[in-house]
């Protein structure tokens, strides 16, 4: 069996992980990882427990992608190969076993390519989420800064106008002091 996980969004992009066998043994443990890939053998029949633990991060939720791939051979395909072995052996120069190994190798390469593309899509999604969060923060802080600058500018204009206005209280206070 082959399994991967990747934190796509949330918090510091890390999570704790463990895999437990049906008999209670902990097979895999990871702490504070943002992504990992593991290969393990399921030697006992039963339900395996997979846990992603986010208890250390109390204020932020996480979005986690995970995939488990099994490399079990399909019995139906094996039976079909055995039935056609003699017939195909007479038609081509290579044996059916060689041809089956070649096809299995191609299938393995395709599975690995699909897994790599999935991981890259997840990296892209994680980076996009981080970029959108940064974009929203920059826009919010820019709006706050623009509001403060406009407020300060208006306050200065009103203060200077009131100094030259004879009826304003500020003008009377400033004249008394000088």
UniProtKB/TrEMBL annotation:
The keyword Hydrolase does not apply. Coiled coil: none annotated. Keywords: Membrane, Signal, Transmembrane, Transmembrane helix. The chain crosses the membrane at residues 140-164. It is a single-pass membrane protein; Single-pass type I membrane protein. GO terms for cellular component: endomembrane system; membrane. Belongs to the EMP24/GP25L family. This is p24 family protein gamma-2. It comes from Mytilus galloprovincialis.
